[in-house]
Amino acid sequence: MNLPINIIIGNGISLVAGIFLVLSMVINNEKEAYKYQFLNAFVLMISSVFFFSWTGVTTMAIAATRNMMVYKDRLTFNWAVFFIVLSVVLGLLVNTMGFIGLLPIIAIVQITICNYVLKQIKWIKLSFIVNEFFYIVYFLAILDFSSSIIEIATAVIGLVSFFKLMWDEHHTNAS
Predict the structure, then answer these.
(1) What's the angle, vertex CA 109, arms to CA 64 and CA 106, rounded to 5?
(2) Dihedral sign for Cα atoms in the order 90, 94, 100, 104
(3) Which of 136, 118, 138, 140 is nearest to 127 (CA)?
(4) Which DSSP string corresponds to 30-52?
(5) Count of other CB atoms within 10 angstroms of residue 20
(6) pLDDT tens digits, residue range 138-147?
(7) What are the boundaries of each domain within the chain?
(8) 93-107, pLDDT tens digit by residue?
(9) Per-residue pLDDT tens digits for 107-130
(10) What is d(CA 155, CA 22) in angstroms, rounded to the nearest whole number?
């Protein structure tokens, strides 16, 4: 495979994934947020192939599967533990990028714990935002510039959405 062409193709595919990520941040429905998180992870799994990021392929495949289970209300404690163990073991086995390759593993563990524990949209959004920071560094390191830009924009959009949700909730409760 030709690396410059792969970077262009991978960035194009990642751009599509980013649209799903943004959609997951702007809606205020838990179920719909996870549907878009599933689509984001699935498309990023495909783009990771073009970046030769086998940790990304592995963790995104696991993330897509886990997000589908959350969407279908099937993520039990045992499944959450399974996904965490699977992410760490497979992620470490395919990691060829040192510390940078650990970032998707850390991110998937963080978000899996949050997927299981958090049920309110405001805290789910906050967990998505925290997750963005792991991926911003990771995507920059693998030269996935479209995902990096989208992750930064999505983190900002997510923060605005989170604070608006908090503001609306505060004013609804104050009435």
Answers:
(1) 110
(2) negative
(3) 118
(4) HHHHHHHHHHHHHHHHHHHHHTT
(5) 19
(6) 989 988 888 8
(7) 3-174
(8) 988 889 998 998 999
(9) 999 999 998 999 898 999 999 999
(10) 9
